[in-house]
């Protein structure tokens, strides 16, 4: 037969009375009545079949059986308290944070829409995101990782390439419909949005035609904003495939022409090699690289990417 264990209220009443040597003081400490303490102790004595206290007026003294039980419960409670403390510390260690600096266009068009996937993949990670167009200053204590379009290598830092991106032509479905049957030769006379770093002459060379830069039209310094302008029907836009992947999948943008050319500068994940959060940073970098893969693409090799791999 399995013995029914006393309730926590009963055990607490007993241990508190044993500590103070007084039911009255135990009742005050536990914010209950003297009668409640007395009933709990009587119930415990009935269940164990022995006296736990000798009453002497308002004071009580432990019997030998009571002393043995009190010592055992104190030891058990200390073990429980230590286990709870260890669990809290372990939880605190397991939950780690990374401060990430990322360009506004990459954050808005690509990273933020994938944060729910990141939380599912790395539930222990707390992420703090700051957006700026300035180069990250890794000497700051509040910066762990930078995501930047730049030319590698980064002297003095660790880095991993996000992916080999390409420059593509996009427009709204309505614009493509208005110019149904669009061919490469038609691009020169169609409205084209402009960006200082993406040259239409480069795309023309990749497509096999000579193409001058537009002499008029809106100029953008943010590729994500330019893609939004294209989605509103303002014209053709050259932009990074990564930044418009979601808009293409959702049908807000289309690629009317297949010609493209490799990006001259790609996005890199950059961090300090002496950052004590190395393992967490590498897990985050691996997730970023996998999340940036085009649908159906095989996982990239990590050989030579991270410092601990040959």
Summarize, please.
The chain has 310 residues and is an alpha/beta fold. The chain contains 11 helices and 12 strands.
> Which structural class fits the helix and strand makeup?
alpha/beta
Strand content: 15-25%
What distance separates the N and C termini? 62 Å
Which spans have pLDDT < 50 for at least 5 consecutive residues?
none
CATH class of the largest domain: Alpha Beta
Q: Could you say what the CATH architecture of the largest domain is?
A: 3-Layer(aba) Sandwich
What are the defining features of this structure?
single chain; 5-stranded mixed β-sheet; 11 helices; 310 residues; alpha/beta; D-Maltodextrin-Binding Protein, domain 2; 3-stranded antiparallel β-sheet; Arc Repressor Mutant, subunit A; 3 domains
General description of the model:
It is a single chain. This protein is an alpha/beta fold and 310 residues long. The protein folds into three domains: 8-93, Winged helix-like DNA-binding domain superfamily/Winged helix DNA-binding domain (Arc Repressor Mutant, subunit A), CATH 1.10.10; 95-165 and 264-291, D-Maltodextrin-Binding Protein, domain 2; 166-262, D-Maltodextrin-Binding Protein, domain 2 (3-Layer(aba) Sandwich). Helix content is 40%, strand content 18%. The chain contains eleven helices and twelve strands. It has helices at residues 8-20, 23-30, 34-48, 64-94, 104-111, 115-121, 173-178, 200-207, 223-231, 245-250, 278-291; strands spanning 53-56, 59-62, 96-102, 125-131, 145-150, 157-161, 166-170, 194-195, 219-220, 237-240, 261-262, 266-272. A five-stranded mixed beta sheet has the order 4-3-5-12-6. A three-stranded antiparallel beta sheet has the order 10-7-11. A hairpin with a 2-residue loop joins strand 1 (53-56) and strand 2 (59-62). Helix 1 packs across helix 3 (34-48). The longest helix has 31 residues, at 64-94. It is rod-shaped, with a radius of gyration of 34 Å. The chain starts with 7 loop residues before the first helix and ends in a 19-residue tail after the last helix. The model has no long low-confidence stretch (mean pLDDT 87).
């Amino acid at each position: 037969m399995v013995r029914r264990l006393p309730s926590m209220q009963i055990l607490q009443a007993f241990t508190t009375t044993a500590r103070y040597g007084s039911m009255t003081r135990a009742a005050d400490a536990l914010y209950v009545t003297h009668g409640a303490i007395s009933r709990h102790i009587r119930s415990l004595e009935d269940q164990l079949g022995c006296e736990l206290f000798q009453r002497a007026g308002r004071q009580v003294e432990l019997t030998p059986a009571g002393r043995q039980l009190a010592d055992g419960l104190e030891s058990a409670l200390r073990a429980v308290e230590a286990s709870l403390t260890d669990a809290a510390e372990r939880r605190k260690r397991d939950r780690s944070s990374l401060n990430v600096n990322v360009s506004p266009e990459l954050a808005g068009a690509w990273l933020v829409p994938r944060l729910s996937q990141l939380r599912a993949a790395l539930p222990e990670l707390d992420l703090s995101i700051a957006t700026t167009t300035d180069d990250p200053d890794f000497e700051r204590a509040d910066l762990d990782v930078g995501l930047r379009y730049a030319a590698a290598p980064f002297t003095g830092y660790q880095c991993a390439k996000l992916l080999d991106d390409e420059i593509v032509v996009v427009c709204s479905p309505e614009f493509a419909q208005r110019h149904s049957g669009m061919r490469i030769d038609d691009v020169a006379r169609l409205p084209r949005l402009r960006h200082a770093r993406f040259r239409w002459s480069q795309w023309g060379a990749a497509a096999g035609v000579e193409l001058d830069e537009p002499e008029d039209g809106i100029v953008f310094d943010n590729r994500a904003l330019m893609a939004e302008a294209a989605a509103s029907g303002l014209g053709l836009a050259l932009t990074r495939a990564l930044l418009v992947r979601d808009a293409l999948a959702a049908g807000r943008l289309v690629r009317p022409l297949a010609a493209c050319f490799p990006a001259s500068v790609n996005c890199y994940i950059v961090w300090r090699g002496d950052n004590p959060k190395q393992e967490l940073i590498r897990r985050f970098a691996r997730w970023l690289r996998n999340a940036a893969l085009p649908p159906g693409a095989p996982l990239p090799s990590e050989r030579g990417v991270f410092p601990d791999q040959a």
